């Protein structure tokens, strides 16, 4: 550690160097890095499963993995990616690092709870590793009953426990953010001066807090049913499998917004900074974020259109799904219009952000197609749906996560990375992603169901294209590991504000000192006070940058 | 002074408890769960307002305390709408 | 945590802010708990809606007397808890300890009654998966009622046990004189939790004990 | 659309309207995507840092744009919703059907029962141009009956009946898939729908051998399970008569009125008097849950349905 920080100023990284000082830290910035380590590990575990799945599907007969093994692979891919990568990705790393910095606080409201949440997260992770090495789970990440409770032969209870415990870490993080954003803002940081990233984290935290407990109870009931053999959701004993689906999707649809809202926040920061222009329609953007968070709770039934819910509620759920798309459309429009009359540079974070807007748009419009009840009858549970949600979650969230990581990397580490390699990785992500998932739209309309380990030979060409894209995508995701890692040792020293951005996080040294600011900041300016005419900007504390 | 207020609240709560039990033996059919649930909501309101001292700073407490209950309305309401309009599923 | 000269944690400006933030945090946590229990009560109400008759027959075998006694015990414990907080605000250190001790005692009493109730339930053969007999008149879904009875009361008992632990910790703090009229946020926060657990019982009681009595 | 190399086959009446809607939405999607990409690329080139395009006269008041954009999007979405919901109600409504097939899904096969008693596994023969009504049940976990060429899909949830319908328009063999993950061999829970010319279909039916019809098999079960003891014509027990029950409105004891469809009859058999007692009858019927399998249930229901038909038959 000492060698890495040799030429850097005194900072949160240099304060103490013992292992214990990291494992017992209550500094939000160190906890962010702890989370970063954990979720990176899970990203590659989930990615490994995805790699095996794509390799397996090159051959229509599906001979690489045994059927049972294939089922365990996609289940693990789903569970790990959803709960152990996507949901904590932006909030727990970038969010943890940036929320206090951006609002001008010394730390989160409950630093010890923050640390505890990391331990709880890893405890849940241990359960994942346990069921992984014991042989896996074969229910799909959705745990549908009665398959999960009475028929599956994997370690369902261990998986449910893992997700249950993981929920506590979500709740602890959400609770911390909500209270912090409400009560710990620097003087002058009124709500309508908050950076959009903070608004997004706030909306995300609210969704986490309001949805996660219901999932916890649902999985608890599944665990009880499976261990005790009683029939809570078992139709043979009077239970209703659709009740499980209602409760599961009451959480799991809003969970999609837990994944995408922070990404929208990151992208807003990036586009404003690299277009050197205030974000178009700031107030509208905040309303849109909150609208998505709230309306997102009324649409869960679109996962159940073919499951046997009443046709009346299916129609209402369809309508609400169209309604929730409106604020997303507004955001896309505002991002693109922000570029108008900007002074745009195409640094790596900006490439990721623009890639996000493109992929999110494709994911969004295909979302309209599956929200249309009549079409969803054909498309439900096919690769069309798979492609659609990967466009949102991988094309959207993961692109934004990488963009944010590059953007704030100099702040987090005090180092600059190789811009050329980073741009190359960003372009590669976009290309590889489209090649992987676009063919899946076609497969879906042709009628290829999800979770099939074998398929008719005439569809092979689309699967081969998809797998080829996946290998490009894999390179694009591994590449940053090398050049970002390299930058830690050999990277040029970054100044306090390498992008000349306006947020308070750039008004302290890189990396920031232990308690964030040498002097408590006073906020006098709206966010994103960029001037495209000469590329100058006024930071939120009034300084010209 | 405030101790007296707590004592009164406590006595009212016990009274409501008795009322709830008494209502269980009345032959009022479908109104029974309504009555009992109504009493429970009243009791919960007393607990939140008196014992958990919701009035007072910070007033944001009201929002957070209410959010959970408010959000349950969506879970109950929207799912119930499905159950009540599902064809072929007779009511008990 | 153990510094002798009390001062607010580093991220806060003063004790007032720290106290308010702690309370808010607890209320947020309570909101999540409401949704957690709400999910359970939701499944219960759906099945009660679908199987009203069976639930009414099964519910008649719940021990109303014990349930009602426990409701009264919990209501009283909420009173003693809040009196402990009042004592802290008035700086009556002995009174804090006395009321907290009474709260803990009531908590244990509740668990004792609950335990006794479980024993009688076991003798009644109404414990699903362990000792369950379909009694004459029971329809198939009657077992579902008892499943919910044990899950709900079980989770509630776990919450109450955590509450007892928290109150015991507060007694330790109080004995060391850590609560001053300026800052007694931990006690206040534990009090909120305790009252909330009481609140849960207020909803479980009619749902589990008052069915099918008329 | 079948000239497109990656378009699914169109072999039922539902396929054309679904395809039309799909193409309409694809077109709108394409417009939106092109617009966004064009703006990103266009602005990106014109307002790149090096260009000396004018940045003066920035739009400061953005409300008007935003509201206009919001309302326009909302109206387009609303139109799509109405179009889709309308079509859905037609797709999900169940027309009477020229032919009733009972389908039981179980890990990992589809069992089909024709009204004439013919049974098939994983294959279903139907005549072209006739509306086929399916009654779907599951023996174990949730399955989903999916025929891509017909654009029809229904989840088959254990414990309840689902109905679906299709009217094939082309002769040929079409892929039947299970679309809801149902365990290890999910990917092999496949089958085919064989659509035949009416004459070929009649010949195929005749070739299946003379099995008693589904209703006749049900009648045998009706006696062996002891149903006839109470519901029979000369029973002394005061049980509701089943003649003409199917499709009628039944008034229940709590004042509720339900239609006696497959689901109602199924619930009555499985749950007995604990549940749905018609007004005016004592609650004495035993529950048969756990004693009758899905196959037998369907036969019993076919029999009870036939009771009405025989009487009304001209």
Describe the structure.
The complex is a heterotetramer of chains A (545), B (92), C (214) and D (314). Chain A contains 15 helices and two strands. With 545 residues, chain A is an all-alpha fold. In chain A, strands 1-2 form a two-stranded antiparallel ribbon. In chain A, helix 2 packs antiparallel against helix 15, helix 6 (156-183) packs antiparallel against helix 7 and helix 7 (196-228) runs parallel beside helix 9 (282-295). Chain A is globular. Chain A starts with 18 loop residues before the first helix and ends in a 7-residue tail after the last strand. The mean pLDDT of chain A is 94. The model of chain C has no long low-confidence stretch (mean pLDDT 90). Chain C has a two-stranded antiparallel ribbon. The radius of gyration of chain C is 20 Å and the shape is elongated. Chain D has 314 residues and is α+β, with helices and mostly antiparallel strands. Among the domains of chain D are: 99-207, Cupredoxins -  blue copper proteins (Immunoglobulin-like, Sandwich), CATH 2.60.40; 214-312, Cytochrome c-like domain (Cytochrome Bc1 Complex, Chain D, domain 2, Orthogonal Bundle). Chain D has seven helices and twelve strands. Chain D has a five-stranded mixed sheet with strand order 3-2-1-5-8, with helices on one face. In chain D, helix 1 packs antiparallel against helix 2. Chain D is elongated, with a radius of gyration of 27 Å. Classes of the chains: A mainly alpha (545), B mainly alpha (92), C mainly alpha (214), D alpha+beta (314). Chains in contact: A-B, A-C, A-D, B-C, B-D, C-D.
Q: Could you spell the SSE succession of chain A in H and E letters?
A: HHHHHHHHHHHHHHHEE
How confident overall, as mean pLDDT of chain B?
A: 87
What is the count of DSSP helices of chain B, taking H or I runs of 4+ residues?
Answer: 3
Radius of gyration of chain B: 18 Å
The rounded Rg of chain A comes to 23 Å
Helix and strand content put the structural class of chain A at mainly alpha
Bulk shape of chain A: globular
Poorly predicted segments of chain B: 88-92
Strand content of chain A: under 5%
Please give the largest β-sheet of chain A: 2 strands, antiparallel
As residue ranges, the low-confidence spans of chain A are none
Q: How many strands, which pairing sense, and closed or not: the largest β-sheet of chain B?
A: none
